[in-house]
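Board notes (copied after class):
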Amino acid sequence: YYWKSEDSLTCINCLNPTLTPYTTSEQILFAEDTNGCVNSDTVNLFLNSSLYVPNSFTPNGDGVNDQFVVLGEEITSFELQIFDRWGLLIFTSDDISKHWNGTYRNKQVQQDVYVWKLKYTDHTNQEKRLIGHVSVIK
């Protein structure tokens, strides 16, 4: 028997390998009997989506925590909006890898608390919405 996998397996020709999955994936086990007949079975591994949204950052140019970074796994669509205290939309992104650097119209925003709205879809294809706040600390 042997495994076909795009993830990290401790071994591909043992019956109970350890798997280190990075995304939802498909694992296929092939088995061959003494007569040369081959059969296979498939295991679908579904990972739960996860999302981390920080509550503060320090855009002071020191190279540490300078951007508002939303991290997520198994996210298939993403829309982030950030508003100032008066409801003015100051940042938007539909790309989870695009981070807010604490500016609006190329000027640093003041130290304050900003509201964010997040709409995303994960591997379940269910749209989810979150609202929170982030503190800009200088």
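Comment from the instructor: The chain has a mean pLDDT of 89. The radius of gyration is 22 Å.
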